[in-house]
Amino acid sequence: MNLNKYDISTTYKATVSRNERLTPEDARDEVRHIVLNIADPSFVFVEGQSIGVVVPGPHDFGNPYHFRLYSIASTRQGEDSNLAELSLCVRRCFYIDDVSGERQKGIASHYLCDAPPGKEITITGPYGRQFLIPRDNSANLLLLGVGTGIAPFRAFVKHIFDERRAWEGKVRLFYGAKTGMELLYMNDIKNDIGQYYQQGTFKAFEALSPRPAVDAPVAIDRTLEDNAEEIWEMIQDPKTYVYLAGLSKTFKGLDKAMTNIAGSEEGYRQKRQEMLQQGRWAELLYD
């Protein structure tokens, strides 16, 4: 994702309202649900969009600020129907420095995860017009997310069942995480998405890592293939929209799974290209 292409000339001041941990204290990964209050009424967004977080410097190489995108996890009506608030799903990240080989802290993720209520944060945006819910209530939605890629889908599900209500199309969510307690917004700590399981059109399928202790990839490709018949039937329907969200590396097995579902690499490639051209295939992937 090339962050240099984003216009950050217009900024807004946001204040942290809440900062809650979504994963258990003993979980390997720390993921937090962070609620921001933006008092400026000119800041408006819809489900599927992202905001930029500007971390003040100085940073390495003399950079005056650090910029990072985060998907909005709230609906257009705001977090808990408060139009002045939105939420983010943030994983505390680390990376290995290419030069020193040392483990370094992710600048923006630590900045947000450590932000106490009352802290003022500079944001920009919103960004992203290609990841929006279709207006047609009879459209089918095939949602594929891993890790914090669940954020826009939390907003999707809450919007179509709480605010649009009469959704007639199928909604199928395939979501992957290392362990059951890392199924964000679907665990014992916060179950925002789980409460919609009884909706007649909505089903969710969970994919876990077969060996989370050694960072084995989440088996979302296997879960997709287990439901191949329904997935291919949905993809063949001209009313179906496909959305992918999460880390790029977690979707490495997706092409193989979809090729198997389509019956051939050529069949999958053609169908994906057709849906892209029709605006029915959208990806929100990050490194």
Task: Describe it.
The chain has 287 residues and is an alpha/beta fold. It folds into 2 domains: 3-127, Elongation Factor Tu (Ef-tu), domain 3, CATH 2.40.30; 140-286, Nucleotide-binding domain of ferredoxin-NADP reductase (FNR) module (Rossmann fold), CATH 3.40.50. Helices cover 20% and strands 31% of the residues. It is built from 6 helices and 13 strands. The strands form 3 sheets. Strands 4-3-8-1-2-5 form a 6-stranded antiparallel β-sheet, covered by helices on one side. It starts with 10 loop residues before the first strand and ends with a strand.
CATH class of the largest domain: Alpha Beta
First-residue to last-residue Cα separation? 7 Å
CATH architecture call of the largest domain: 3-Layer(aba) Sandwich
Task: Tell me the number of structural domains.
Answer: 2
Q: What overall geometry do the principal axes of the alpha carbons give?
A: globular
Helix content class: 10-25%
